[in-house]
Design brief:
single chain; Aminopeptidase; about 25% strand; transmembrane; NAT_camello-type; transferase; membrane
């Protein structure tokens, strides 16, 4: 068993790697968001408006006015890039304070997925099968990792909801792109939901944008249900992003209850 991934609790010093993973995760949806913005109605309206102003008020030939199309597209790309960069920087500040934000009480937590691999990797991670396990399973397995390198490849967090009395939020679910489709995100989500169950939360929610379809589909497969859809304002009401709030209802008042999709969920992948 030369390639394993262990889901474990955050340790001081992890934030350096977590910040990079989450930044890459935020930026990975940039191109999808850019193409989505290009085909929004407001973009076409801006193209027509600028072209009309140049043609009517400045007498610029119509063929030259058509150059406004690539200009608007370039500006859209710059705006999308700046929005994602700003978001990544904001989250980076949060990640710098993981102990205060997520580890200061028993009702919140932060976990990382740590990969153990040979020092000399002859194949790309996407071509390798990884065994994914929890921290407890790893301790019981007695696997010797003394000759292996380790690196953090995923994150997830749970925090108490300020809106719902007994609700929790799953945040920062992210996996390095080279380790997608290895069952890592699924196991991270399992750990987060199990934590919410153990802490007595009545439900656990998460939010995904229209540009993070993979994460949304994973949650739906795990038994989450769509609670509401809403538009997040980016530039007033002119530019918006469709957001999906998903919820996993945990039956309250029954200590023996565990949703079927999470029974025996921590099997090796």
């Amino acid at each position: 068993m030369s390639h394993i991934v262990v889901i474990r609790s955050y340790k001081p010093g992890d934030e350096i790697y977590c910040r990079e993973i989450i930044k890459d995760g935020v930026m990975s949806s940039m191109h999808t968001a850019f193409f989505g913005n290009v085909f929004k109605e407001i973009t076409f309206q801006l193209m027509i408006l600028f072209a009309a102003i140049m043609f009517i008020f400045f007498g610029i030939p119509f063929t030259v006015c058509l150059l406004v199309i690539p200009v608007v597209i370039i500006l859209t790309y710059i705006g999308t890039f700046m929005a994602h960069t700003t978001k990544a920087m904001e989250i980076g500040q949060e990640i710098n304070n993981i102990p205060r934000v997520y580890m200061s009480n028993a009702f919140s937590g932060f976990w990382v997925a740590e990969a153990f691999e040979p020092y000399l990797m002859t194949r790309h991670p996407q071509d390798i099968y990884y065994t994914v396990m929890t921290e407890d399973q790893f301790r019981k397995s007695n696997i010797d990792i003394s000759s292996q390198a380790k690196k953090i490849v995923g994150t997830v967090a749970v925090t108490k909801s300020h809106r719902l009395d007994k609700g929790a939020w799953i945040k920062r679910l992210c996996v390095h792109q080279q380790y997608w489709r290895k069952g890592i995100a699924s196991c991270l989500l399992n750990v987060a939901v199990q934590f919410a169950i153990d802490q007595g939360y009545s439900c656990v929610n998460c939010v995904a944008s229209e540009y993070t379809e993979g994460g949304r589909e994973l949650c739906l497969k795990k038994g989450f249900e769509l609670k509401q859809m809403y538009h997040k304002l980016i530039v007033g009401s002119l530019v918006t992003v469709l957001m999906y709030e998903l919820t996993y209802q945990i039956k309250p008042g029954d200590d023996d209850y565990m949703p079927n999709s999470y029974k025996n969920s921590f099997l090796f992948h």
